Amino acid sequence: MYRDKARRFQITPHIARRGTMHGSGLGVYRWVVEGAIALLHWFRRLRIRWEIRDDIHHAFVTFGCAVICWRRLRPALCRA
């Protein structure tokens, strides 16, 4: 559907369909960004933005990233 709309404007879509191989190289690392956003949505406060001030929201995003990193690194630190 969106590919047809893009072609109407003479835009060639290069992102492969789901489950198919592609050789263009586009979209290879797309899942990393989607996964990172999904991890941040674990935190209710970041799922829906309640803060009016940008600096407070930025602080919560930074804290959320730190918690995610800590959870990922904790098993490696315990093995060492």
What is the fold's blueprint, element by element?
Layout lengths: L1 H7 L21 H11 L3 H4 L6 H26 L1
Shape, please?
A: flat
Note the main sheet.
none
Low-confidence stretches: none
* Count of helix runs: 4
Please tell me the total number of domains.
2
Determine the strand fraction and express it as a percent band.
under 5%
H-E string: HHHH
Alpha-beta classification? mainly alpha
Work out the number of β strands: 0
Mean pLDDT: 79
The radius of gyration computed from the alpha-carbon positions, rounded to a whole number of angstroms, is 19 Å
The first-to-last residue Cα distance is: 51 Å
Percentage of residues assigned to helices: 55-70%
Organism: Streptomyces rhizosphaericus
Protein name: Transposase
Describe the structure.
- It comes from Streptomyces rhizosphaericus.
- This is Transposase.
- By secondary structure, the chain is mostly helical.
- It has two domains: about 1-35, no CATH class; about 40-80, no CATH class.
- The protein has helices at about 1-10, 30-40, 45, 55-80.
- The longest helix has 26 residues, at about 55-80.
- The chain is flat, with a radius of gyration of 19 Å.
- The protein starts with a helix and ends with a helix.
